[in-house]
Structure formats: structure tokens, C-alpha cells
Design goal:
globular, 42% helix, 2 domains, single chain, 5 strands, alpha+beta, Nuclear Transport Factor 2, Chain: A, five-stranded antiparallel beta sheet
Amino acid sequence: MSFRNICLILLLLPGLLLLSACTGAGSSAAGPEKAVETYLNALVNQDVNRLVTVSCKAWEEKARLEADSFQAVKARLEGMTCSKAGEEGASVKVACTGKIVATYGNEDQEIPLDRRPYLVSQEGGEWRMCGYTK
């Protein structure tokens, strides 16, 4: 192998590694778990537009109602992790652990995330939060 070929390989290698890293991150970041995490982050940050964007069309109005219920409190997520928990027809169940801590005045109320699995479906080529399941 010539010196020229070695230099060419060394110049191209970082670019190839960067492209492969981007491809891997994109596919895992767009999964059903990420849709729920994005939904919950938008909820506690009172980002109604983002909340609706990551919701199924049928869930959009309920997403707005959930956002309204957090208007009078400061909320944050603690220890949130979400994972696929099964399938329900064409939808995926996602279970999360952790909690939402809602502060009103000086009082904290904890809302455990593991009380109900989230239902996620693909709509418009993207995973979207579609409600809760039993």
C-alpha cells in the first residue's frame, strides 16, 4: 500500500465513522420509547406545540387537556427511563419508571410514571404518543 493510499484512508476514516454514528443514533432515537420521553418532557415544560406534534391525531385534544392540567404548577421529571413493554395490535406499549414532580407553592406532588403503560403508534412515518393502555 502506498503512502498516498494510507493518507487517503486516514482522511476518509473520520468521515465514515461520523456517518455511521449518525445513522445508528437516528434509528434508535426515533423509536417508541423516545416518543414517550419527548411527550413527557414537553408536558412538564408546558410546550403545548411539541406535545401535540408528538401525539397521534386522535390524542391531540387530550394532550392539550393534559398540558392545561400542568399550567398552575412547576413540574420536572426525575429518573425517567422508558422501554418497550410489548405490543397491542399495530401499537407498541411503552413502560416508564421515574416520576413527575409537580410543585404548587411549596408543596411537591409526585406522579409515578409506572402507573400506566403508554400506547405508541406510527403515524406519518413517526412514532407518536396515542394514549394509555391497561
